[in-house]
Amino acid sequence: MALTDTAIRKAKPTDKPIKLTDGSGLYLLLNPNGSRWWRFDYRYLGKRKTLSMGTYPDTGLADARAKRDDARKLLAAGVDPGEHRKATKAAGEERAANSFEVVAREWLAKRDWVTAYSVKVTAWLENDVFPWIGKRPVAELAAPDFLRVARRIEERGAIESAHRIMQNCGQVMRYAIATGRADRNPVADLKGALPAAPERHHAAITDTKAIGGLLRAMDGYMGGFVTRCALRLAPLVFVRPGELRHAEWEEIDLNAAEWNIPGEKMKMGEPHLVPLSDQALTILRELHPLTGHGRYVFPGGRSPKQPMSNNAINAALRRMGFDKEAMTGHGFRAMARTVLDETLHFRPDYIEHQLAHAVRDPNGRAYNRTAYLPERKKMMQAWADYLDGLRLNDNAESIVRKAQ
């Protein structure tokens, strides 16, 4: 006889389990503790099996019958409903394990970033990406999915943030490819789809007389020795501030006078080689007895296991009286680019390559990290000598003639 909701509610537990049969293999198992479990008994390939259909009243009578009918349809099609459920569950778990959010958080955990930057990128993803595509499997995401995410950011006027967040999304997708969870990176297809980010100009001193005054002020900096060394090295190597802060001793070959920066630390993702002038080597050899036993060339003041603060260089410049409208840590790059080109007249491709910009030859091929290395070594030494001359007497004309 088929069950009714009234009969189910009136049934009382006993000291033994009771089966309340509904028909076609479905029954409600009433346990001594009062719990009510739906069960479906069936036979598959000659074996008796039982499938759980949920608990009452969370799963009502009508829902239990619908589940039974679905299971019987599978049986009629030659499919074991129990194995089908396991496969469906496994597929759902795999889908969840390969979701964009799961992959992104795994990627984030492997980044060797300072805490402040890690928090910033995590917040970008949590606020602007995960709510929209976080639960989607990375293998199913397409360029329009990421474009919609970027458009939402763009609509609030944060165009630069949209570009940065898409860059992070692209890095997550490349990690998904590397770990076998996606076949391609659809973010790469967004090239040209977003409006160009507004150009940012970093304050820089490019007047030769003013450069001499800046260098002398840096020599007289009264702050910590590590920061002072970073300040003195910054104009000599003119790398990006983040690349300078994260410099590691294992990347620096004092004998070969080279600093080899791995690709994962570079903005363009390609390894970069910085020839070290005699002046740069002197600074590094002065610093080595203090920090050479650790990982970072310029460790943080609070923990030697972390690089120096991302604000250390700019804060030192402010203490010396150079406000953010006059000079920034990034400004050493503009200083070198301008003076090496306009005053010392080095070839622009040498300069651009040393700045780790995307320099290409006439055939469109990207130069490798050692391209024009002998010429760049001469340029870096001439630049260091030129800065020494400015520091000592500001006689730019004579220094230019000597450098050339």
From TrEMBL:
InterPro entries in the record: DNA_brk_join_enz, Integrase-like_cat_sf, Integrase_catalytic, Integrase_DNA-bd_sf, Integrase_DNA_bind_dom, Integrase_recombinase_N, Phage_int_M, Phage_Integrase
Pfam families (UniProt xref): Arm-DNA-bind_3, Phage_int_M, Phage_integrase
GO biological process, one term: DNA recombination
Record-linked PROSITE patterns: TYR_RECOMBINASE
Keyword DNA-binding: yes
Segments forming domain Tyr recombinase: 200-380
Presence of the UniProt keyword Transmembrane in the record: no
GO function terms (MF aspect): DNA binding
Keywords: DNA integration, DNA recombination, DNA-binding
Superkingdom classification of source: Bacteria
Family in the record: Belongs to the 'phage' integrase family.
Stated name of the protein: Integrase
Native source organism of the sequence: Lysobacter daejeonensis GH1-9
